[in-house]
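We include the entry.

. . .
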Amino acid sequence: CLQAHTSQSDWAPDATASLWKEIGDPTAEYPEWSQPLGAFDAYAIGAKVSHNGKHWTSTVDNNVWEPGVYGWEEAS
């Protein structure tokens, strides 16, 4: 909610859009890493994943390595 309002409980996001801001799902930007099976599903350079409680960005193209081993940079 962009503006506090306790007196109007019916001010829902669909009724008063100017008072609300959508917050994206944090897991959508960093989906959980899964082991690629081959070149057809390898991670591209710049791909973002989460793995072992950390966020990672691929630094190489066709990345099939586990984050933290090779080809990934931990996001700050």
Notes: Residues 25-74 form a domain with the Seminal Fluid Protein  PDC-109 (Domain B) fold (CATH 2.10.10.20). The beta strands are 48-51, 54-58, 72-74. The longest strand covers residues 54-58. The chain has a mean pLDDT of 84.
